[in-house]
Amino acid sequence: MAAGAGIRTVNLCKVYTSPPPAASGAATLTLGPQRGPGLRNKKVEIQALAGLSLEVRPGEIFGLLGPNGAGKSTTAGILTTRIRPTSGEAWVGDYEVWRDQVKAKRLIGVVQQRPNLDFSLTAREILQFHAAYFGIGKAERNKLSSELLERFQLTDRADELVRGYSGGMMQRVAIARAMMHHPRVLFLDEPSTGLDPQTRLLLWEIIREYNAEGTTILLTTHNMEEADALCGRIAIIDHGKMIALGTPAELKASIPGGYLLRARLSLGADEAAGRLRNEAGVSEVQVTGGRLDIYADRGGALVGLLVSAASACGAELLDLEISEPSLENLFLHHTGRSLRQ
To answer: How many Å apart are CA 193 and CA 113, to the nearest integer?
Structure first.
């Protein structure tokens, strides 16, 4: 198999003036329609990407991590020629994808968020027809399809129509199809969405094996466990902008103090925060309404200090959650909200 190709975007912007395609990741409304006496009707503009620049090295598994609507699927859509950018550049290997679409497409395999299979075909037929599109001879595509069906544990049902498959089986067929022509870059858009834990682990194993053969993989996900388990590097994006970039270990190490205590008080949150900021080991305290986000170098050991601070303010501790260093904590630190929001 040929070595993987790199991926690069430069100041990539996308503004939708009509409803974006499903799963495009666009959610930021920048201009609403205006109607009324003396007013022109103006189109809705949705800013999906706002100057996103990325560089993915050949042969790595690179993750785009962010909540729904962050711009992950729009980025993948531009790189795979499904969505035209408003401005900026997108490269796969040596080809700028919107100037050399045909050449770029020959380098890539794509697995969309929702499997788009032909329900009138069997799994084997889907794989073989896909290989034929790329000029692979009959003997070779028969061999490749059998190997991939075995690899994805689909051999026993390979000659059944896929309309009877479960969601996890359809996703396995979709990924196998994308691998049939040996792409140098594989795009996986939310590949494990809706899958049961056993199928998810199988997919992760296959993704690692395929990457070990040299293929570059771009993975979009809002699943922090998936990003942590698979990706060599991760770009965390929100509202079409990058907010952090690095290895999972580097990103988690960048969280002030590492641990996060999220506490909700009945009152006096600002006063309690002032007391806690002076405690040893507390790196940062953020206040949102009656909630405290306390970043510290330890977790449970601070509970007593938190209770004392609340008591000194005449407040009750209504809720407390302690979490160890994680990508979720990093996102909370930068945005004040959960990746799942």
So the answer is: 7
* Tens-digit pLDDT string for the chain (341 aa): 557 799 999 999 999 987 666 555 555 444 444 455 554 556 678 899 999 999 999 999 999 998 888 899 999 999 999 999 999 999 999 999 999 999 999 999 999 877 789 999 999 999 999 999 999 999 999 999 999 999 999 999 999 999 999 888 998 999 999 999 999 999 999 888 778 888 889 889 989 999 999 999 999 988 888 999 999 999 999 999 999 999 999 998 888 877 888 899 888 888 888 989 888 889 889 888 788 889 888 888 788 888 888 888 888 889 998 888 788 878 877 776 666 55
CA distance 151 to 33: 51
Structure tokens at 128: 């073989």
Domain count, the chain: 2
Query: Do 105 and 233 fall into the same domain?
Result: yes
150: left (phi over 0), alpha (psi -120 to 50) or beta: alpha
Rounded CA separation 199/87 (Å): 38
Same domain for 138 and 60? yes
Do both 87 and 210 map to the same domain? yes
Give CA–CA dist 123/149, Å, rounded: 8
The whole domain housing 85 covers: 54-251
Q: Which of 255, 191, 198, 220 is nearest to 63 (CA)?
A: 220
Tokens coding 38:
């003396």
Q: CA dist 198 to 94, 96, 111, 203, 241, Å?
A: 38, 38, 19, 9, 33
Residue 317 sits in a domain of what CATH number?
3.30.70.100
Sheet strand arrangement including 87-92: 28-31, 45-56, 7-16, 87-92, 95-96
Domain membership flag for residue 33: no
Contacts of 81 (CB under 8 A, 6+ apart): 97, 98, 101, 104, 105
Coil, helix or strand for 83?
A: coil
Same domain as 195, residue 139: yes
Question: Which tokens go with 293?
Answer: 């986000």
